[in-house]
Design a protein that fits this description.
Layout lengths: L1 H9 L2 E3 L14 E7 L4 E9 L4 E6 L2 E5 L5 E6 L2 E6 L2 E7 L5 E5 L2 E9 L47 E8 L2 E6 L2 E5 L2 H7 L4 H11 L6 H13 L1
Antiparallel strand pairs: 1-5, 2-3, 2-6, 3-4, 4-5, 6-7, 7-8, 8-9, 9-12, 10-11, 12-13
């Protein structure tokens, strides 16, 4: 009982009212450990809403939002570590080259129309239907939460009914340090702006390796290259 009182005192959770359409990091709420700066530890079922950039959790059948994130030291959701940075929780990722990157997920789903009966598309291809809780892991191998892009157009639902079609817009930010300075990159424009003296060299590397900032895998490769400059 004492732990419950401390938990409520240190991290006020509020019932979630109407917000933007949600896009969840995981396809379901997962076992999560919350470590507070005061040393307290708590376990809940949680998921990260990458559209609203909120850590959510379930209390019974009630969806709740973690508030007062500044009191949190680290959150571990199903093996993925998160820390508060730049006002939002960021996934802690080590690139293949061993560079620490904080990935500030921000994926927004935007309604663009529908797929008509018999699979006749009313909108351009590379769209995806998103229903309720949606896990980014659906787009990846190795457990997910790493792909920022989109997938192919929906087929009809088998009953000739139209399906809503959504586009995921990637607005994620990648934070990393180089030579004592922190960089925050979102897309190639921000890369070139941050490293103007290496712009042509970066362009050549990106072109030769067919890279962009649309997937985290590609972004990490670009960041690993930037750190060597």
């Amino acid at each position: 009982m004492r732990k419950l009182v401390i938990f409520i005192f240190l991290a006020v959770f509020s019932t979630v009212l109407a917000q933007e359409k949600r896009v969840y990091f995981f396809s379901d709420f997962v076992n999560t450990a919350i470590q507070y700066k005061g040393g307290q530890k708590f376990k809940v079922k949680a998921n990260y809403d990458v559209a609203n950039r909120k850590m959510m959790y379930m209390q019974g059948d009630q969806l709740m939002e973690l508030t007062d994130p500044q009191l949190v030291d680290t959150i571990v959701t199903d093996g993925y570590a998160w820390v508060l940075h730049d006002g939002h929780f960021c996934q802690v990722v080590d690139s293949k080259a061993g560079n620490r990157v904080l990935l500030g997920w921000h994926i927004v789903k935007m309604h663009e129309g529908y797929v008509g009966a018999f699979g006749i598309s009313q909108v351009p291809s590379r769209k995806v239907k998103l229903n309720g809780q949606f896990g980014l892991d659906n787009f990846t191998a190795d457990g997910g939460g790493i792909f920022n892009g989109t997938t192919d157009t929906n087929a009809h639902d088998g009953n000739g009914s139209n399906l809503d079609v959504w586009r995921m817009k990637n607005q994620s930010t990648y934070y990393f340090n180089k030579d004592g300075r922190e960089y925050a990159l979102k897309g190639m424009k921000s890369v070139y702006k941050a490293f103007p003296e290496h712009k042509e060299q970066i362009k050549q590397f990106v072109h030769d390796n067919h890279l962009d900032m649309m997937t985290a895998e590609n972004a990490f490769r670009i960041i690993d290259f930037l750190i060597t400059l």
